[in-house]
Design goal:
Helix content is 4%, strand content 59%. By secondary structure, it is mostly beta strands. A 15-stranded mixed sheet has the order 8-7-6-5-4-3-2-1-15-14-13-12-11-10-9, with helices on one face. 30% of the residues are buried. The mean pLDDT is 96.
Length: 191
């Protein structure tokens, strides 16, 4: 993976079923990484706008997450903070059950796979097990999700979660950002 600190990437994915798209940016500034995205999709046939902002420290550990969903007049907001003592706060309330989580996984985007990929910096053939604060959509509930990443080649990873109930392989670019997420997302542009 490219370790340059002056990364500024802008990407667009389309859902394979054609139901939505995402615009995403990845930037490094003031010793932090910022991953921001806007998704237009549907949940239960309801048109929905999702906006997220994620800030990670220099080592790719999640520090702050904001998510907003808008479906008609219904708006939901979620804020996750991982403080200096590694405690997670959900909308201002400490959530001890997330203590083992380092990453956030937004269940609506391939973008958050970048966080553990960059943080772990696995060599080809290596495997790592991690825990993520998994944000589920459309309800914005948060739970612990065990994950396993295996680096199969310079640009290919195997991803497993929920004790092997979900398994896929995907390609990434030199920045560790997903190109195609089988059956779900396909990148259609980047600069």
């Amino acid at each position: 993976l490219d370790n340059q600190k002056d990364i500024q990437r802008y990407l667009m994915w389309q859902q394979i079923d054609g139901a939505g798209s995402e615009y995403c940016s990845l930037q490094y500034k003031k010793r932090d990484w910022y991953l921001n995205g806007t998704i237009i999709t549907t949940f239960n046939d309801q048109p929905t706008l999702v906006k997220y902002q994620i800030r990670c420290d220099e080592m790719w550990c999640t520090r702050h997450v904001q998510v907003t969903t808008q479906s008609g007049q219904d708006q939901q907001n979620l804020e996750l903070i991982r403080d200096e003592q590694y405690r997670w706060h959900i909308n201002g309330q400490v959530k001890d059950s997330l203590g083992q989580c380092v990453d956030v996984d937004l269940g609506v985007t391939p973008a958050t796979n970048t966080l553990p990929i960059r943080r772990l910096s696995l060599a080809v053939g290596e495997t790592a097990e991690v825990f993520a604060a998994w944000v589920r959509f459309p309800q914005l509930s948060v739970e612990v999700l065990g994950q396993r990443y295996t680096r199969l080649s310079e640009t290919r990873y195997k991803y497993e979660s929920r004790g092997g109930a979900f398994v896929t392989e995907f390609e990434v670019d030199r920045w560790g950002i997903v190109l195609t997420y089988p059956d779900l997302w396909e990148r259609i542009g980047s600069i």
